[in-house]
Amino acid sequence: MSERFFPDSMPPPLADSTTLPWWEAAADHRLVVQRCTPCGHTRLPPAPICPECRSTESDWQEVSGRGRVYTYTAVHRPIAAGQELPFIIAVISLEDAGGLRIISNLVGTPPEAVTIDMPVELVWEDMSAELSIPRFRPVPTPPSDED
Amino acid sequence: MTGRKAHIVGVGETLYTRWGKIGDVTEHALACQAIGRAVEDAGLDLSDVDGLASFAEDRNEATFLAAELGLPSLRFANMVWLPGGGGGCAAVGNAAMAVETGQAEVVVVYRSLCQGQFFRFGAAGRDPTAPVDPAPPTVKPAGSLMLASMGFAMPYGLLMAAAAYALPTRRHMHLYGTTTEQLGMLAVTFREHASRNPRAVMGGRPMTLADHQASPMIADPHRLFDCCLESDGACAVVVTTEERARDLAKRPVEILASVQGAPKGYGFGPFTNANIADEIYATGGTEEMANRLWEKAGLGPSDVDVAEIYDHFTGCVLMQLEDYGFCKRGEGGPFIESGALAWRGGSLPTNTHGGSLSEAYIHGLNHVVEGVRALRGESTSPVEGAEVGLVTSGACVPSSAVLLGRR
């Protein structure tokens, strides 16, 4: 099991048959986006029809999980029992997902250190054997040559 | 059909209180009371009413209310799709369509909301002290399209509106240098307006910018005083035709234009959608709709004498001011700082009742009520000679607006 950042009492994902494959991929630690097979347009959350070409054919494209902070908020009120406060909700621009963003959390950083556009990387949190949630953390700064 | 142009002829409300203070009266009883008062204000009788409209998943169905109120015939019963507070002005616009097309003669738009009896929006319907399910966390079935969409927000703890709308506001601050003090000045201005309004829940609670800055952080940059109230109460407005409006009790207010909708790909807005187009992410999402409103009315932002802008959060007001063209994109902060929103001396007196930040949170239908009072000269923060009033509904979700004109 992975490092834990949030308690078991966090609200679980709710899914229908269109969105469930995304969560099944997450359980395998694969961050995917839905890609329209004919036109290549990517979309998230998953949806039955491509809003660009209206095709119903799609496949799943795995992405690296590298990205940048698009916007964020530090939340000071608990949503779940036993939660550490504040916690950070962020929108992440994914690097190789056709321009897509994802709502997630930033972990491993105090809110004061967060800036918009800062580079982040994916970290999986296994909430149980069946459920993994993608969170993000700052990319560690490589040691400077001048040090 | 001549003489059928829609007008608002009556407004009314119940007592407004802090959430949980109205525990002994049901929401639908409050709705009936507000509807009765609005009809009385118009100089009409409940027997004249043949249509009811609401929004925001109002729990008090028109079909039951029609029976309880003894309406002789229900000819129009309408519920808006736009989520939550986004639909208030759309309900008014739909009522206008009903009377203008001859489907009904007198339609009452109502909203009744007792957060204390159901759940507090601020707590997102969750109780962090409740016992934790001992079963291992897993994906659960979504009972609706909305919940499947929320599935991409909830596991991250994104359930509070204060956090959801902090996201575009934070980005606005990044792009344009908007400050918490500018947001605070907006809240202080609305509180000052509330100080003269006997209906305002926070009327007796003055606020300074220092008070705002000292209020607890909820979801950065939203402090407590950037967030709307959580209230119990109900209000209603009566819509009928120009012909019928002529000989009623109060000066009628014309619905000059109404619009509703959302831009491409907006979905539910930033609450569940991270992929709103970059150009409109740090906006209220209402610019395209605002342009339609001005075009329909043949008027522009400079023609507006008084504005009642949906204020669930201060940042959402600021972004709407830009969407509606009262200032340029990115200049909402300095616009607020200039004192533009003050009832006296401001270029755009805004939320003369105190808004959802200081009067009450009735999903913004109270903004329509105040827009009518402002043009009748009945506001407690009157704007002399006001002839054109803008009322907007919740932004950062699919939204709606009406432009009102004094007759």
Describe the structure.
The complex is a heterodimer of chains A (147) and B (407). Chain A contains one helix and nine strands; from the N terminus they run E-H-E-E-E-E-E-E-E-E. Chain A is mostly beta strands. Chain A has one domain. In chain A, the strands form two sheets. Chain A has a five-stranded antiparallel sheet with strand order 7-6-5-8-9, with helices on one face. In chain A, a hairpin with a 5-residue loop joins strand 2 and strand 3 (42-43). Chain A starts with 13 loop residues before the first strand and ends in a 9-residue tail after the last strand. The model of chain A has no long low-confidence stretch (mean pLDDT 95). Chain B has 407 residues and is of the alpha+beta class. Chain B has one domain (6-117, 228-406): Peroxisomal Thiolase, Chain A, domain 1 (3-Layer(aba) Sandwich). In chain B, 32% of the residues lie in helices and 17% in strands. Chain B has 15 helices and 13 strands. In chain B, strands 1, 2, 3, 4, 5, 9, 10, 11, 12 and 13 form a ten-stranded mixed sheet that branches. The chains are: A mainly beta (147), B alpha+beta (407). The interface between A and B is large, with 53 and 53 residues. Strand 1 (14-15) of chain A pairs parallel with strand 6 (140-141) of chain B, so a sheet runs across the interface.
